[in-house]
Fold this sequence. Notes:
Blueprint: H1 21-24, H2 32-56, E1 74-87, H3 88-91, H4 105-115, E2 117-125, E3 134-139, E4 152-157, E5 167-172, H5 175-220, H6 225-245, H7 249-275, H8 284-292, H9 298-331, H10 337-366, H11 368-376, H12 381-386, H13 388-421, H14 431-434, H15 441-447
Antiparallel strand pairs: 1-2, 1-4, 2-3, 4-5
Helix pairs in contact: 2-6, 2-7, 5-6, 6-7, 6-9, 7-9, 7-13, 9-10, 9-13, 10-13
Amino acid sequence: MTSPQNDPAPQPPQGHNHAHTHSHGPAAPVSRHLRKVIAAVLIPFATAVVVGLIAFWPGGVPDHERTGVGFDRQTQDGKVVQVVKVDCADVNAAQVPPTGDTSTPSGREAVNEQEGECAKATVEVTSGDDKGRRFVEVVQPDAPRQLKEGQGVVVAYAPDAPRDLQYSVTDVNRKVPMALLAGIFALAVVLVGRMRGVMALVALAVSFAVLTLFILPAILQGSNPLVVAVIGASAIMLAALYMCHGVTARTSVAVIGTLISLLLIGLLGSLFIGWASLSGNTDDNTGLIKGLYPDIDMSGLLLAGVIIGSLGVLDDVTVTQTSAVWELHQADPEMGWKGLYRAGIRIGRDHIASVVNTLVLAYAGAALPLLLLFSIAQSSVGTVANSELVAEEIVRTLVGSIGLVASVPVTTVLAALVVSADRTGPGGAQTATAAPARTGRGRRRKTG
Length: 448
């Protein structure tokens, strides 16, 4: 009777016939003893995460009086119902006449405001208490956003302004293309991943729920951003890994490897953010947050972002390394933990190179406009790196990359120790893997 000692195994991958599912399935069995050891580590951890969620649960975003600045504005939906071309001099009659000097950006803008052809758009509010109300928006010829008839827009509402100036266009309504793109993404995931894809989408929804219902409101309520990020990231990690990969020993090893790497990222991030005197308050958005909620620890918020941002890539690395070691063990059951580690780490080195490059390029792409500004100013590399805006991204990238690099050997050695120790675990090693030379098809059926 060996079935009580087997991990619950997910469905076998396509392409394997039924006679081989017990010995070549995606989740190799482990002994009862090892399952108890893993449970002794994970159950207290999961319990601590649940307790943390309860203790720090925010109960919603705290109220505040709107400032009308940036994102902190009342907005409604609107629609452009008419666009008429007019002479800019007619609609900008109150402007100071330009000097004619076009050598500066302000001079060129002033000339365009007087000599160019502007668009006079009539916009109708389509939601809220003022639904049906119309107002006029003048669009300059060099404005980055031009309006078209029938276009959906987002309008900002300023209740304290004069009636004719209460509404203004603040952005384009992109809900339809964004929803369509999300639908295409979900369809592609389900078509290719099938049931695993469905579970991945469910895990994504859970991650988003933890982020919006727990992490963000708890930080706004004044809780320590680092503690909140660790609790929230741990909850996301447990939900995502177990939902996507099943409740198995292999997944549990990936969870432990991810947890160790997250702790390392938290420690390094805390050390270097403090040492480099990074305030976390570097642009208009963070300045607005600090102004609305003065008690928020902005440097702690920066560290929380580093932890949460690293979690997604960490999951990929730890699951891949654990799966590689498990498959190596099934291919050669006689290989010891040292051999498994050496073979697994060779796979991990390729993974490290690609993942680190991906992370660095992702951050560089996000900061590309900023890097362009430094390039225009012809600043030296040292000057660019020393500025707080760029230093934040450097610390974020390097701390996250160190955690990713460390996760490969940590997870590989954990997986190698677990899967190799299972062969001599109490309760009976797996006979099919302990003596492969004497194992036939009938023997596999008997021990599975």
